[in-house]
Predict the structure.
Amino acid sequence: MKPAVTRHLIQAATFGFGASAGRDLWIWSKKNGWVAITGVALAGGIALPFIAGRTLCEGQDRGFWQTLLRTLLFSIVLASVGTMLAWLAVFIACMLIPGLALALDVRADASNVYERVGMTAVIIAGIFFGLGAAVGLTRRPGRTRAFAVAAHNRLFLKQQGIDPTSASDATHVGPNGERLRMLGADNDAIAFMVVGKRSMRAFVYQDKDGRFQSYSGPQRI
């Protein structure tokens, strides 16, 4: 069989499989719409509180107002939306699964539904918020060290007079106006090519933690 014919057959078979899978998914979703909605809502009720807890506890390199708005408020909103999605998932699941409603002691009167379903949703969201917080706390020391190194390096570059530039042929400008193009880094130093000067390099030396220590200035290699 010719390669072109084989390729077309494979493409046709692949397209047919994809179309069939999509059609089957559509038919399933029409027949099981409430199940799909429950699954999506439950996924949100799990993921959003987890992200909220992790974001709140993992540490952020932000000022006071950004911490207040982008960390604290963001986490509260995420956890609240996640709890509402968990409530929706549990509510629909109780309608679909009589045994679950019986296990949660959910009865027909509205006050009982709100109490039992709401309590279950809060427990679900709280568990995954706690798991996210635990993950965030394990990440916090490393992130805090990384933020401290980044702040030190920004201050070092400012004190040395090394500024970033958007020029097409350079990435930085040195303290004496030398145009520098970053070539790469290893554990000991970051190497720059001095633009316009053949065989000239400049180095920013760093310690084992990545903190910048000294700037060599242009030197011949």
In short: Helices lie at 3-31, 33-57, 64-96, 98-103, 110-160. Residues 32-157 form one domain.
